[in-house]
Amino acid sequence: MSKRVCLQSILSVQKACLWGVLSGLGFQSARHQLHLLPRRQISRCSQLFNASQHNSSTTPKVLVHFVNQDGVKSSVTVSEGETLLDVVINKNLDISGFGACEGTLACSTCHLVFEEDVFDRLEPMVDEEVDMLDLAYGVTKTSRLGCQVTVEGWMDGMTVYVPQDVKDQREISKGSK
Amino acid sequence: MVLFCKIDDVNSSLVSVSVMPILVSHFNPRPKMRLLVQKSLFSIAKCTRTPTSNTVGKFNRHRGLCTSPDPHTKVCIVGGGPAGFYTAQHIVKGRPDVQVDVYERLPVPFGLVRFGVAPDHPEVKNVINTFTQTAQHERCRFLGNVTVGKDVSVEELRRAYHAVVLSYGAEGNRSMGVPGEHLSGVYSAKDFVGWYNGLPYNKELRPDLSHDTAVILGQGNVALDVARILLAPLDMLKTTDITQVALDALAGSQVRRVLIVGRRGPMQVACTIKELREMVNLPGTQPDLLTEDFHGVQEALKELARPRKRLTELMLKALQEQGARQGDRKWGFRFLRGPLEVLPTPDGTRAAAIRLALNRLEGSGEGARAVPTGEVEEVPCGIVISSIGYKSLPIDPAVPFDPRKAIVPNNMGRVQDNTGLYCSGWVKTGPTGVIATTMNNSFDTGRVVLQDLDSGAVDLTEAKPGLQGIAPLLEKRGTAARAGAYRDFS
Ligand SMILES: Cc1cc2nc3c(=O)[nH]c(=O)nc-3n(C[C@H](O)[C@H](O)[C@H](O)COP(=O)(O)OP(=O)(O)OC[C@H]3O[C@@H](n4cnc5c(N)ncnc54)[C@H](O)[C@@H]3O)c2cc1C
Ligand SMILES: NC(=O)c1ccc[n+]([C@@H]2O[C@H](COP(=O)([O-])OP(=O)(O)OC[C@H]3O[C@@H](n4cnc5c(N)ncnc54)[C@H](OP(=O)(O)O)[C@@H]3O)[C@@H](O)[C@H]2O)c1
Ligand code: FES
């Protein structure tokens, strides 16, 4: 588990180098590096603004249902070995703001709530995941970070939920005329 | 609607968010990076085809693929930080007929993600990729170098747009309000952070790091960022995007001890566990915590909620293990102490020590209050960094502002008594919360904007000029020259 975390962090450093070019700019300024963005960002492009789904080229095996903030359910068949963050990105699921740090354990926006029986079978969390989860919105006893959960065969048919902020929703409707 | 560009275009033009002109004119990378950078510039230039010397033109050109006029519904956002971009994302996604313009005071976007987030946290900055996608949407424009409240008023924006969202963050900082605060050697964390991140306003800070001990007031994550940067091994900092100026200054730094002082106790620290863990694990450093500060803490653990419990356990662990750690640099928390006065050197020119009031706690848990006991203590230190919070400022007399809470008074993002005026991010909530918190509150504001547009609460029957109405004003005031040629918009 901890190996996975490390690897993801290393990958992220590369991606984040884009920031080097954008940063400090112009001013007395910094060290700058540019790396082209890896593929994930490419699919994010349409992800932000469309709700459509595309098929990935790998063999789909496991059926996973996602229920988004608005209670809308999407069902996708995915390959073992992908993280749930990969799934959301690759399948273009309509979940606003999901995965802001791109799987580097630095944001907690990939927070998902699991069914209890599924949650109990997941691999244990590393400290770093709990650290971030502690900052997430609406944490429950069966919460995990989607970027740290890898799809396995036994998960076939599971449903995962994006937490909803019920209180906010209610106040918003009350406040509108 | 124009479909998103081909993959190649998207990939390379991601960096074109209004930055290239600045890159070209002032860019001064360290030599070993220069080649890389030149290559990058080349690829940027290639993909944007016609390099321009202005910010606005770039986005127009991007839009230039579609010759249709702006959509009917015009929304503008003041501030191009996370709140601005997340609000824009939600609104653009929610209605196909809306044009969103983001006005930003700086020439470049992303607010505190660029100028706040620590250089050794590049993962956090990945969120820039999401913002860039929004900025590149064909119904979204980023307009840098426009200070709202100065170059253009909020009233003018409200006349030109159906809805205006204030997302201008917290540009000020809380001050300690103690004598000696203005001595040399005393800095606000906001300025210090701006300095190491290359914020133009803080370029000249030149902090004097020729002292053994630095005292940081406040125990939030910003305090820990500052402590870490002061103590991190140089080799570690070299691999980050910290400015060369800061790196040079830190290379000559004499700081060997950083004390992070809080007015309340160990169970009230404001920092979060990830940042504390980084501090505890910082190579070459040793924690310097005081056993007496943790009396009764072990016993209280079981009452605490998980996040607070884990954070406190980590502090206890650091306390127990500090003797076993090697390091020539030390950091430590000091609790139950509030600033009273910064004491000057005998010649009165700069900070020599800080006088602290000793406190006790009234009540318990997160809401416990610090009450002075009457005792005082003096801690010699050549550097004092006040990190007791940022603060939003009013930007325009026409916009309501709550001076006590230092926010724009609002109901779920709707600005009080001002139909069509909204706020999101730190200016809505006050200066706390990580990017994920800002994201959620910005989506909430985006949602109410969409609700009001849909319900007719905001009148959409009237045609509004949007940027076409604002560009001539900026032109007249000379801002256009700074921001780039608005002529492109005709
Ligand atoms: C030092 C520091 C480090 C942080 N590190 C992290 C971290 O590691 N992880 C994390 O999750 N969160 C971090 N945060 C918190 C995070 O930065 C905030 O939650 C977030 O930036 C708030 O977003 P905002 O858009 O409200 O404000 P800002 O990011 O401040 O954006 C406001 C924007 O408005 C612009 N503006 C101001 N006045 C005007 C005007 N008159 N006209 C036009 N534009 C204007 C500003 O230039 C700025 O670009 C950090 C905060 C600080 C202070
Ligand atoms: N890596 C990250 O995720 C990261 C990094 C940086 C910042 N951030 C976020 O950005 C936000 C702002 O951070 P911040 O550190 O500026 O603020 P903060 O977390 O609110 O901490 C402010 C600190 O200053 C103290 N303080 C406030 N007023 C004081 C006064 N008058 N006298 C003495 N002490 C006083 C507070 O003590 P009390 O508790 O007693 O009020 C607290 O210790 C936070 O939400 C933070 O989590 C996140
Ligand atoms: S994507 Fe940021 S923590 Fe999982």
Describe the structure.
The complex is a heterodimer of chains A (177) and B (490). With 177 residues, chain A is of the alpha+beta class. Chain A is 35% helix and 13% strand. Chain A is built from six helices and five strands; from the N terminus they run ααββαβααββα. Chain A has a five-stranded mixed β-sheet with strand order 2-1-5-3-4. The longest helix of chain A is centred in the N-terminal third of the chain and has 21 residues, at 2-22. Chain A is globular, with a radius of gyration of 17 Å. Chain A starts with a helix and ends with a helix. Residues 1-46, 51-56 and 166-177 of chain A have low confidence and may be disordered. Chain B is an alpha/beta fold. Chain B has helices at residues 7-13, 20-26, 31-48, 55-64, 82-94, 111-115, 127-135, 154-160, 189-196, 221-231, 234-238, 244-251, 273-280, 297-300, 306-321, 426-429, 435-455, 467-476, 479-483; strands at residues 73-78, 98-103, 140-143, 163-166, 172-173, 186-188, 213-217, 257-261, 285-287, 329-334, 337-344, 351-362, 369-380, 383-386, 390-391, 410-411, 414-415, 421-423. Chain B has 19 helices and 18 strands. In chain B, helix 5 packs parallel to helix 17 (435-455) and helix 13 (273-280) runs parallel beside helix 15. In chain B, a hairpin with a 6-residue loop joins strand 12 and strand 13 (369-380). The site of flavin-adenine dinucleotide (FAD) has 36 residues of chain B, from helix 5, helix 6, helix 10 and helix 17. Chain B: Pathway: Steroid metabolism; cholesterol metabolism. Chain B: Its cofactor is FAD. Chain B: Keywords: Electron transport, FAD, Flavoprotein, Mitochondrion, NADP, Oxidoreductase, Transit peptide, Transport. Chain B: It is found in: Mitochondrion. Chain B: This is NADPH:adrenodoxin oxidoreductase, mitochondrial.
